[in-house]
Amino acid sequence: MSKTQIQAARDGTVTPEMERVAERENRDPEYVREQVAAGQAVIPANRHHDALDPMIIGREFATKVNANIGNSETTSDLETELEKLHTAVHYGADTVMDLGTGSDLDEIREAHIDHSPVPIGTVPLYEAVKQAGSPEDITTDLLLEIIEKQAEQGVDYMTIHAGILAEHLPLTDGRKTGIVSRGGSIMAKWMEEHGEQNPLYQVFPEICEIFAEHDVTFSLGDSLRPGSLADACDEAQYAELDTLGELTRVGWDHGVQVMVEGPGHVPMHKVAENVERQQDVCDGAPFYVLGPLVTDIAPGYDHITSAIGAAMAAQAGAAMLCYVTPKEHLGLPEEDDVRDGLAAYRIAAHAADVGNERPGARDWDDALSEARYNFDWREQFDLALDPDRARSFHDQTLPGDNYKEARFCSMCGAEFCSMRIDQDAREDGEMEAIEGEDGTDLEASPAAAVNRPPVGTHRSGDLPPMADHEGDEPLEEPSDD
Ligand code: SF4
Question: Do 86 and 134 fall within a single domain?
């Protein structure tokens, strides 16, 4: 059996995946190997995922962003699902989770894996419920069968809800919002009905063996994550975290890569505490957080409430951020929601990388600021996180080509443009001129590829074309060298 990334790393081998990751992150391949060997970073790379462009998740690397896609009973067709994958990759998702619960799950999952340059994650429990018909009818054999099938299909990482135990359930009784994780609620219902321990916990070593065979990475699900600020950091959440720490070490003992999922809804003053506790309890295994939302009051804007928490979590050491869209709590996201969610999370990830002083992370900010001060509108649009949006917002009021040379925009107007006034004052008076010619060279920046514009430039030639995107340029193919 071939070695997993962590087994190879422990044996001192730098794999081609580590080489590629080192190139993308601008790091020494040996450093990548050390981080993987120590379980401090993961390279989710199922050996059957041929279209993958390997990436790494770890607190010492650029912060990554995951987007969830997937069908439901009400929306389901292959073309739409591939379009969602394309949208997510286009707007900069570093990994994509296929959380489909509708029909044709196998066909859609296989198409996602065939077409995706980014790691694909799944939650096998959802398919188990679908096949069994109800949570209580799930069997251990069915769970193992589905996990093995998905591993053979090429899924790079799977959320496994093995950390929620029967003894944890009473700890949720006083909560304001109970158990809000889908997987958690399913396992809780199963345990209540059967009066037995969580089957995923009981067969965890067998799951490890399947994962080791195909090199699937664990994403240990936080079934008892808080669904409201009132429930954050309670006994139930932290009791499960202790079990996730135990399972992390079991996974490592089996030569399997592990990351750990985290909350949810957490007030700002407790975000760092959550990250530090997970890092301590799980011996530094990468923390993959959903948001967290820092207030419960803003349905319709939860990409913002959660991106605030996500930025704080990433600054405190979270390695990957699971995006939240404006539709959170309200409905299945549409394409514009995916775009808005990813923009919010790419901002959170980048802001944390700048705040953590990752080498070169701020170069992108500097380059854009220079273009802005120089009134180089086209360059400013090109460097923007979402160039199409920046261009279209500008052109709503000043659409003419001549305004691409203008020393003002419609925000302050020509007379009150502070940057124009500042430049004139420097020309006419004592203040020194600000020279723009020695601008930031992003090509020479040591920043990781995900921290340089444009985002969303993964290998995309295999993806279906985007439909009806005005002004949308085809994505660039990275060179093979
Ligand atoms: S008009 Fe105001 S917002 Fe527009 S470029 Fe000048 S200073 Fe900036």
Answer: yes
| 347-397 pLDDT tens trace | 999 999 999 999 999 999 999 999 999 999 999 999 999 999 999 999 999
Give the pTM: 0.93
CA of residue 311 to ligand 1 center, whole Å: 27
> With contact defined as beta carbons under 8 Å apart, do 129 and 135 qualify?
yes
Using CA positions, which residue lies closest to atom 4 of ligand 1?
Answer: 409
Quote the pLDDT of residue 296. 97
For residue 73, the surrounding DSSP H or E stretch is none
pLDDT over threshold 70, residue 461: no
CA distance to 59, 78, 355, per residue, from 317 (Å): 5, 37, 11
- Examine the domain organization and report whether 349 and 221 are in the same domain: yes
Q: What are phi and psi of 205, to 5 degrees?
A: -60, -35
Q: 412: Cβ below 6 Å to ligand 1?
A: yes
Q: What single string gives the DSSP state of each residue in 358-406? A: -TTTTHHHHHHHHHHHTT-HHHHHHHSSSHHHHHHHHHHH--SGGGGS-
Total domain count, the chain: 2
**Pair 216, 46: CB distance under 8 Å:** yes
- Alpha carbon of 47 to ligand 1 centroid (Å): 51
**352 in the same domain as 243:** yes
Classify 207 in phi/psi space as left (phi over 0), alpha (psi -120 to 50) or beta: alpha
Give the C-alpha separation, 255 to 7, whole Å.
6
Range of the domain at 376: 361-445
